[in-house]
Amino acid sequence: AERFYQGQLYCLPAGTPRHSQQTAPLAVELPDEAVPLWQTLARHRLLFLPTPIDRGSPTLKTNVHEANRIADLIEAFEALYAHNDQPLPAGAIGIITPYRAQIAQIRDTLYQRNIDPQRYTIDTVERYQGGARDIILISLCTNAPRQLAALSSLSTEGVDRKLNVAMTRAREHLVILGAPELLKASPVYRALLTHCASPESTTSAAE
To answer: d(Cα 204, Cα 26) in Å, to the nearest integer?
Structure first.
């Protein structure tokens, strides 16, 4: 089974009902004019997409680049599934972020992009416990090194509880957004970036 950091987080074993949903490419057809982001989402169930630090954030707890990327991803997923006559129902996509300020930023950005935020659950990881979605988008919203400590919650076994909860909310597709130059300072997130890394997820998807 695929895993990262000390073998503590696994995909479901091969042969179990949801294994293929976690690992196989999406069973969708791409239009001829499919943009690189569509192609990347169709190929990869687990993605890390690098985003810039928001140097204009007054409190460090918002990242407009990630909010816009969330809107891009929502538009791409909605269009991709609609193209395949599988329109996503309200609530199929969930968005997790550490800060209430970033929740508000994401909602504002969706409004500005004419996307109804009421169709999506946008909340902190603490409030997401017990709830799962087909697609989970995680905005880590890390703009400074000192935020890394608040981002993680390590157990005595060295397992990051917050990250584990966030990642296991996704039934079929997980996309994580963050600034790799900061996240690499955390052993847990450095391992996650290595686990998620691929030429497609770090280049084509960033176009």
So the answer is: 17
